[in-house]
Each structure stands twice: as structure tokens, then as C-alpha cells.
């Protein structure tokens, strides 16, 4: 009898301890269980990454295995000790852009947007966004495709995971009561440490390259899903410690229990608004070299912005054809495009007299002051050309002219090369199309794109745009409103200096004919 009671007690204990998984979940709050579950997965991932080299230790020579272990241990230690971060501070000496700042601030104060910030090279797009986003109101996840740190989908996933790990770590530093986000950060660290440089992945690449290639999109999909969950948790989290019971009861009586987004109420705006910024985003297409992965990224960012209203996304690009790519991927109608133009004459004049002129030696200063009006007509508001011209002017001891200015010579050379290397096998191209196209832009600044394509063929016009001689535009620059929407899309010279080079190119062509 005693033995029977003991067996019954043991059986009851085992049934109590080993309950079904679904019943175990019911005994815990969902948020608590998810926290434990994510911590378990992340710790397993980290341990697996560290001990992975031991699996092949016996199959290699001791010396080679030891070298692999040392290399992997050093790599893992450096990644943990010095995670990659990017600062996004204001640019020193920032000038003007009052209208652009007002427009962008107004857009960011509303519902989440997928913004495409376009403009010619070195016009000041990144400096403008630094001026706006270097604020306590925003938290920027910044990825610069000019210095990417990745060259394929797998390394992009690792790089992106690094930035997201830093983002969620900083949430904990801003709001100490939101310690749950440390577990979210650990999840991204696990993904980062199992990236392309890990020993396990390198072994798989050597053994089965096709299998590893098939996993890259899966890894990116996991990263984007983790980001979505993390952002949802961030929006639904309470920033403050639990209030006293009386205050809590009063709130429950007056306010319905509804979870809101950051963008719903002014009180919620005290949270830092997450903004994902991709600088020179058009380069992602070549860096990832995977159309399906790129489409997956596009789709996820659209969901984060327009559907779930979790964060802003900003694509900075100098590729004027980039909107055509977005249209092909069915993304353009989910985005808001902005065009950043040159500085106004008053702003560039202030920069010239306040910053550039004091750096010019007194003995050669008089000549360049007399050239100021001419320089406005040639350089417009392109601050890079003003700065480069003054630097070269000082080096030449005041002997520099526009005709000997290197960017001007380079612009003329572009026109000459393209006129000699027109797109092949196109019998519809008229004689001397480049000179005739230049005639258009000498007379006017904007020319309808399809009108030029009809007269000079699309292949020639697209070649001019791809070579950055012309720029393709669907909308006007901020502060410049056109009264003729039927003339869109239109084409403009890439800069005032390029327009001046067109005049010189036409003049030289006429002289050669004579």
C-alpha cells in the first residue's frame, strides 16, 4: 500500500511538471514568456557561435584547428567589445535651408513616411538631414552605402543587425525601466555573431556554397521580422515606472485600455522617434546584387511606415532615375519625394563673404571680389564649386580663370566624349544631337523629357542623364512651384557649371564648323 501511494505521488508530480507547452504558456503573461523565450534563443545562439569551431577540431590538424579557434575567438571578442556605430551629428558651419528645414520637420511631425530625398551630387542633402535629425526628438539608424561595410545580402544583414543592436541598447540607456529591450538587443547580437565571418558559416561555404546562398534571404527575413517585433514593443511600452494604485484606478476609469503608437498623442511623443536612413540608397541595388532580397527590404520598409506606422524611413539619393526603379518595384506610390536644390543667391553670398573671402590673402582678394557677379551666374548656389574655386584661386596666386578651372574642363570633356560615343545601332539619332540638345538648355532651364526623347531618341537622353550631364525630375525643388504640371517629367542641367560648359561646347562646335 505504501509502495502504491509512492508511485501515485511520483506519477502526479511528473504530470504536474511535464505539462503541455500550450498550458505552460497560459500560466505566464505573454510579454513575460516572450522575454524568457527570446533570452533563451539568443543565449543559445551566442554559445553556438562560440563553440562551433570545436565541431571540426578532430577533423583537422591540431595546428590548423588552433589557428581557427584563435581567429574566431579574436573576431568574436572584437565584435562584442567594439560594435560598429555611426554618429549623426550636425555639420559644422551649416548655412541656410530654412524652407527645406520647415518642410521636412513638418513631414516628420506627422504620420510615418517613406521619404525619398533626391538632389544632385554634393548639393548638401546629408548635411541638411543631419541638421534636422541631430535632435533629442529622433533616434537615427544610419547606414551609409558610400562606406557600406557590406557587399552582399549576408554581410548587409550582419551590418544592419549591428546598428539595430546598438539602437535597442540605447533605448535601455534612455529609459532604464524598459530593460526588456536588452533581450531584443541580444537577439540582434546573436544574429550578428552568426554572420558571414563566423567559423560555422565559413565551413558551410567551403562544404556547400549553394546551401549557404539559399539561406541569405531567409536571414534577412528573420532580421526584418525581429525589427518589426522590436519596434512594436517599443511603441506599446510605457516609458514610466508603475504609478500608485489610486492614480492607476483613476486612469482606468477615465481612459480606455487601448495601445497607441508614438504618433497618436502629444504625451507619447516624449519617446524618441526611430528613423532609418539609407544614404546613397541607389547603391544598394549593386551592393546586394539580389533583386528578391531588395524587394523584400522595400516591402518591409513600406510595412514599417505606411501600414504599421512604426518609424520613418528616409532614402537619400543622387540618382535622378531612382524613382523609376521604385516605380518598377511598385514602391513609388507609397513614398513621398523631395528634391533638394542649390542654395539661394543670398545664402551663397553670405557664405562667400563670411567664410571664403577671409581665407583669401589680401593682395589677391580684390580680383575675386570683382568676379563675384560672374561667379553667381556660373556656379549658382552650388557651394562645392564656390569652395573649390576659391581654394584653387589661392593656390594659383590669383591667376585662376573659369576656363582653367578643373570641374569646368571636366564638364566640357564629358560633353565631348559623349558626342563621339553615342549609343550604337540607332539610326534614328539625328546629326550632332549633343550640340542641338545644348541649344535647348541655353535658351531655357527646363525641357520636357518626352519632347527631348521624341526629337533625339530616348537612348541619347538617358545616356546624358546617366552621365550626370542632365537630371531627370518628376517634381520641382522645395520652394520652386511650377505652374505647368503637364510639362512633367522634365530635364534640367545637372548644375549651373554644366550649363556654362554647354555654352562653351556649342561655341567651340560653331568655331570648328567655320
UniProtKB/TrEMBL annotation:
Keywords per UniProt: Coiled coil
Pfam families cross-referenced by the UniProt entry: ATPase_2 (PF01637)
Matching SMART domains: AAA (SM00382)
Biological classification of the source: Eukaryota, Fungi, Fungi incertae sedis, Mucoromycota, Glomeromycotina
Single annotated GO MF: ATP binding
Keyword Zinc: no
Domain AAA+ ATPase: 111-338
Protein name (record): AAA+ ATPase domain-containing protein
Gene3D superfamilies per UniProt: P-loop containing nucleotide triphosphate hydrolases
Coiled coil: 241-268
